[in-house]
Design a protein that fits this description.
Shape of chain A: globular
Strand content of chain A: under 5%
Order of helices and strands of chain B: HHHHHHHHHH
Mean pLDDT of chain A: 83
Structural class of chain A: mainly alpha
CATH class of the domain at 1-79 in chain B: Mainly Alpha
Number of helices of chain B: 10
Shape of chain B: extended
Structural class of chain B: mainly alpha
Oligomer: heterodimer
Largest sheet of chain A: none
Low-confidence stretches of chain B: none
Helix content of chain B: over 70%
Distance between the termini of chain B: 87 Å
Radius of gyration of chain B: 28 Å
Number of helices of chain A: 13
CATH superfamily of the domain at 1-79 in chain B: NADH-ubiquinone/plastoquinone oxidoreductase chain 6, subunit NuoJ
Distance between the termini of chain A: 55 Å
Number of strands of chain A: 0
Radius of gyration of chain A: 22 Å
Helix content of chain A: 55-70%
CATH topology of the domain at 1-79 in chain B: Four Helix Bundle (Hemerythrin (Met), subunit A)
Low-confidence stretches of chain A: none
Amino acid sequence: MSSATPTRPDSSSNWLAIIGGGAAVAVVFVVAIVWWLVAGGYFAALGRWMHESDLGSALRYILEALAMLVCVLLSTAVLIYFERKVWGSVHIRRGPNVVGPWGILTPFADFGKFIIKEPIIPAGANKGAFLLAPLVSVVLAFAGWAVIPVNDGWVVADINVGILYLFAVSSLGVYGIIMAGWASNSKYPLLSALRSAAQMVSYEVSIGFVIVTVLMCAGSLNLSDIVRAQDTRFGLLGWYWLPLLPMFIIFFVSSLAETNRPPFDLTEAESELVAGYMVEYSASLFLLQFLTELVAILLMSAMTAVLFLGGWLSPLPFPPFTWIPGIVWFLLKMWSVVFCFSMVKAFVPRYRYDQLMRLGWKVFLPISLFMVVLVAAVLEFTGLGANVSG
Amino acid sequence: MAEAVFFWIFSTILVGSAVAVIFARNPVHSVLFLILAFVSAAGLFLILGAEFLAMILVVVYVGAVAVLFLFIVMLLDVDFARMKEGFVTYLPQGLLIAFVFGAELVYVVSGWAVSPHAAGAATPSGTLSNTAALGEVLYTRYVYFFQAAGFILLTAMIGAIVITLHHKVGVKRQDIGAQNARTPETAIELRKVPSRVGI
């Protein structure tokens, strides 16, 4: 990212940033106003039509999905700026401060730059798979957001198997990387894809066991129900991070590995593989790969917030804290986890590949397997387990 | 209405990609089409209301099995020209095998009926969610079959490990416990080295 360096960008990227930022804000306002009119009862008839008729429901789902998409895209822009500022602070430098006031338009300048550049497809590449790979990645990364409950009842698709869906979508994410690595027809991308596949498959195993313990405690696979199950009179001490503390740590570290973040970014280790599977990608195709990583980080943070940090629940379960809307708490929790992700990247050195595999298979897998048995036994013999059969 | 539309979409993609698995020239494309077929099958499960099966299909087959499959195919050095060479010579045998399989399939499908034993099995009540209902049947009535399936998979896994595990002699191996147990006192030795002599 050239704009991370403190050189002054040319005026065209400034204009692009302003236009891009303005357009994004305008879209958000339009969506917010439509949403407010519908939800607020001003178009009660329209709202009823949207809930009762088939066509209306379809339209509602599309609008909700679009609103979610726009919010996530804006969050990725915030994420770019936020992370660079965090890293800047850690390294005792300023971070992005050139485009726009305090540099807040830097991400839009970045996006604009990627879009107007020329995409280059290598002559030896498998063209179809090469073009399809970033699309697969980005679609899967955004698809996971469909089931994330940002507030009580604020979820695009409130499905029964929400957590399995998330798990499925995140395990499919590896295909974008494998396809990109293979289709590039180049050495570094292929090696990177190999590493990535082994890494993601290994850490999915422990993530799966962590999810199993959480859903044993909650007695449901629905993400909203998992959050509701954490709603006890103990407030933040009743959320699953405390009773399942080892699993919380394993989940956090595994999600770093699952999103290929440092210290586990072996797939794009600069000193060994240049940029890994993204070596041959340029312009908007690279932008899609880049967006995928950011959205995956946000998704994993949201997942941590929902599974272990009580989602939209207030940390202190009494007024005035319960008067604050749940979405504020959710966003605070999610961005706290994002902050941890950024800090880890800033000061933890990269793992060696054999250490990474050892950690996944010889440390996390036995611990999480043992914890599944332990949690199941505790729930069974103390009668704390949720009554599912009822 | 919507169900019918999605059924036709998913089944068209499923059949189309299944055909493409056979006819794709590049084996990697074949595997990618196979994955598309899996995902469309998961979509069909969703339409049937079997959301748990759909997700498990995606997690297990697409998320884990097909990844390894794809890798093996990618890393094999397949010569397309040589693969096509024997096509005509093997055609009669291939057709014969296809005919036998086709006949068996027709025979099995035409004689298909719900067995009286399974029909009387515990039918989950309508109030339960898909996952809970499946769990109740799987862990009560069919628990021994379930465990037996698990043991078969375990045996296969142990077999694969036994075949591939070789303890080579003369290779320096890493002992993480020993490494972590080292302290500066045991790892560092200070010596007085005389000049021009060495240790």
